[in-house]
Amino acid sequence: MPSAEHIESSANSADAYGEAVEGFRHAMSKYPATVNVITTGSGEARRGFTATAVFSATMDPPAIGICVNKSVDAHDALRPDSSFCVNVLAVEQQGIANRFAARDGSKGASRFEHDTWDILVTGSPCLRGALANVDCKVSQFIDIGTHTLILGDVVSVRSDRVQNPLLYFDRGFRQLATESLEMGE
Ligand SMILES: Cc1cc2nc3c(=O)[nH]c(=O)nc-3n(C[C@H](O)[C@H](O)[C@H](O)COP(=O)(O)O)c2cc1C
């Protein structure tokens, strides 16, 4: 993928650079993603935010990546000795996605008041009823400008629910169609 500098130099003007960024934003809106709530901390220091920039990095050892905007409240709580949980949301948990994206105006630990949270191993809050909880210890930070790419070692998982995932596509929440494709399974 071209870097911002590459787009800038090949585009050759600020306007063309803006158009290239907008084109990339539009292309990424066609990239369907699962919706997750990433949580860290405990008690009044709990923090969480909605995220689609989550990927499984390696299976052996199990590791996950998250991309966190430096402006997000939880960003500074994610330190080298900390942990986080990736909570994969089910389709009926859209309200939780909105809350942890600050769309209801709630902040900090108050976002956690409406739901039930369990502790698995690390102590990070794990949402009961999520499609999956992936409990991790922070392992690496990579500064990528506006965001930090954080890698985590997976120390515990819970994924016993069979439910449809909440998806984000074309700038809105979506759900899977129930029909399988002919060759799909
Ligand atoms: C569908 C969706 C996906 C998002 N994905 C990310 C993400 O991957 N990384 C990120 O830093 N912010 C992401 N955000 C934005 C954060 O959820 C939002 O900036 C944050 O909750 C702001 O509130 P806070 O700073 O009070 O936590 C996403 C928001 C939405 C609605």
From TrEMBL:
One MF term in the entry's GO annotations: riboflavin reductase (NADPH) activity
GO biological process: pyrimidine nucleobase catabolic process
Gene3D superfamilies membership: Electron Transport, Fmn-binding Protein, Chain A
Pfam families tied to this protein: Flavin_Reduct
Keywords: Oxidoreductase
Domain of life: Bacteria
Domain Flavin reductase like stretches: 28-175
InterPro entries cross-referenced by the UniProt entry: Flavin_Rdtase-like_dom, NADH-dep_flavin_reductase, Split_barrel_FMN-bd
Coiled coil: none
Protein name per UniProt: FMN reductase (NADH) RutF
Species of the source: Litoreibacter roseus
Name of the gene this protein is made from: rutF
